[in-house]
Amino acid sequence: MASSSACRACKRALQQHTSSFAQATTRRSTAPSSSSLRRPFSLASRTAQQSQSPSQSAHAEAPTSPAKLDYPLSAQQAQRTAPGNAYASASAGGPSHATMSQVIAQGLHGRAGDSTETYVAYGGTEMLFRECARQADYRVEKDSEGDAPKTAKGEDLGVGEGWWYEGLGLTPTFNTWAQITFLHMYILTTHIRKFPKEHAPAWHQHLLDHFFYEAENRMVIYHNMQARGIRNRYLQDLFIQWRGVMAAYDEGLVKGDAVLAAALWRNIWKAEEINATGLAAVVSYLRREINRLEQITISDFTSGQITFGGPEQEEAVVAEESPQLSEPFTATESEHTEEAKN
């Protein structure tokens, strides 16, 4: 009996809610059309209102009904599919969910403070990582049985384009993609280290997490690694490689280009025979990009608005002959040369 009366009570509540919603919809459809009612109420407008003086904010009209917040469905759809709109749907070719979540988090960051830092860091690092990952992107073309071609060492051989593969002659494999992605993640890491100590760990961790998400995704899709245990072993090895990359490149930045070139040679070229000009171009490219990030504002960096310049631009730089090659040896240098021979 109690169940029956509860059911009837639910029905009455549902009918009242439906009636109220229909009345609100009717009022909204018959309301006079004006630009003030059709103005999109977005997060950007809220942020602009927050930047007003306290006296202006106090007199600002607060929305009191759904009619002041909504506008025709066609206008909403047009806004969501408009190029450059932060709320555009992914199916319409607009920004991803990471972009949308980042815009929301940044709008709330001023109010909530540090509590939204992890959301801002997640969205920002996802876009930063995508820029890193696309530098040496590749694909694997499988045969009718789902098998990929192999290299002489047994790695799945992919198809890659761009300077890293066509200019340097690197083999398009998973390991090559990982090492070049590490290189660009390291460039970003040198900038993240300047963040306040309460913010830097979140940015470091999210950037690394995005790499592991993508790496595991490629293991499954491109390389048929269906067993989680096998993937975990590869991911653990990649984490060790990342720690080694940071230590080696840090040492190279401090001790000079020769040490940095040796670190790049071991990680990217696997200590195999290479073109010295190409290696010198990568060394110059790494230093150039680190210096360029010094000029980028924090807002551009945290919003993910970072693009890397092409390393091929450094080929002309390293091709120039150093003026010191034509200078004679000093007495001290001659003594060191003789000591080395002996």
UniProtKB/TrEMBL annotation:
Residues 16-98, 312-342 are annotated as: Disordered. Residues 333-342 have a biased composition (Basic and acidic residues). Residues 168-308 form the Ubiquinol-cytochrome c chaperone domain. Residues 323-332 have a biased composition (Polar residues). GO terms for cellular component: mitochondrion. One of its GO terms (biological process) is mitochondrial respiratory chain complex III assembly. Pfam families: Ubiq_cyt_C_chap. It comes from the Eukaryota. InterPro entries: Ubiq_cyt_c_chap, Ubiqinol_cyt_c_chaperone_CPB3. Residues 24-62 have a biased composition (Low complexity). Belongs to the CBP3 family. This is CBP3-like protein. It comes from Lasiodiplodia hormozganensis.
